[in-house]
Amino acid sequence: MSETSETPCYIARCKCGCGGLIFASVQSQQMSKERGNDTAKEVSKLIRAGYSIERMTVGDVRAATWLCKKDRVHERLTPKEK
After folding, report:
1. Could you tell me if 69 and 19 are in contact, meaning their C-beta atoms sit under 8 angstroms apart?
2. What is the model's pTM?
3. 13 near 21, Cβ under 8 Å?
4. Could you tell me if 5 and 59 are in contact, meaning their C-beta atoms sit under 8 angstroms apart?
5. Helix (H, G, I), strand (E, B) or coil at 15
6. 2-30 pLDDT, tens per residue?
């Protein structure tokens, strides 16, 4: 399944309140089957780290501002992070 601009994603925004995105993951059954439960694990890590999780479309994610709008430095959260 390829994503369309209307395919839903889970996103996390910068903690400072600027609205910048720091994480996005496409919500698709096909990807869930291929990757196991990785999206749920990553989203739960973000929640534990204090980020709020939202949903938006792939099109909105592509058009969004990434990283902090106030030029703060953020560590990239990777799947290998504990």
Report:
1. yes
2. 0.69
3. yes
4. yes
5. coil
6. 567 888 999 999 888 888 899 999 877 66
Q: Please give the angle made by the CA atoms of 21, 62 and 30, to the nearest 5 degrees.
A: 95
List the beta strands (DSSP E) in 1-82: 8-13, 21-26, 53-57
Q: What are the C-alpha distances in Å from 7 to residues 21, 54, 58, 60, 73?
A: 17, 14, 6, 10, 29
The Cα–Cα gap between 59 and 42 comes to 21
According to the model, what pLDDT value does residue 48 have?
A: 94
Q: Is the dihedral of CA 19, 23, 24, 27 positive or negative?
A: negative
In degrees, to the nearest 5, what angle opens at C-alpha 82 toward C-alphas 14 and 62? 35
33 residue type, one letter: K
> pLDDT digit string (tens) for 32-71?
566 666 888 889 999 999 998 999 999 999 998 888 877 6
